[in-house]
Amino acid sequence: MDSPEEEILEFNVAHNRRYSSDHVWFQEKDEKLMIGISEYFLIEAGDALRVILPQQDSEVDIDGALFSIWTADGKFPIPSPFDGIITEVNGEVEQNPELINDSTYDLGWVVILEPHNYDEDQLLDPDEYVEYIAEL
């Protein structure tokens, strides 16, 4: 009798960050949030081929696009869970999107957001994020 094989996905989750259900990571830095996408996002959507950054100092509304990632599967606008101002963009990932694929939690950060009303409880801690992925 054949037993169904479970697919095993291997990916890293950085433990000094919080996560959204959209597979975006957030790291607090001086009352601002450094933001990037998780390795799980790359597994599901494919390697980043292109990154579309917002204008620095632009205002972002809740659910407004923080940035967009293009993969072989298409374009993925990344929504913001907070209102805020984009205070910095990582132009390196726009020129070299492989940084996101190769250094997701370090050199592959995308934007820094100064949120107007940051509530970390709106985001998942690393253990909650892993549990969330397991339920998908």
Task: Characterise this structure.
It is a single chain. With 136 residues, the chain is α+β, with helices and mostly antiparallel strands. The protein has one domain: RNA polymerase II/Efflux pump adaptor protein, barrel-sandwich hybrid domain (OB fold (Dihydrolipoamide Acetyltransferase, E2P)). Helix content is 20%, strand content 32%. The protein contains 4 helices and 9 strands; from the N terminus they run E-E-E-H-E-E-E-E-E-H-H-E-H. The chain has helices spanning 39-45, 91-95, 98-102, 126-135; strands at residues 18-19, 24-29, 32-37, 50-52, 59-60, 65-71, 74-79, 84-89, 111-115. The chain has a 6-stranded antiparallel β-sheet. Strand 1 and strand 2 (24-29) form a beta hairpin. The longest helix is centred in the C-terminal third of the chain and has 10 residues, at 126-135. The radius of gyration is 15 Å and the shape is globular.
Characteristics of this structure?
136 residues, OB fold (Dihydrolipoamide Acetyltransferase, E2P), six-stranded antiparallel sheet, 20% helix, alpha+beta, three-stranded antiparallel sheet
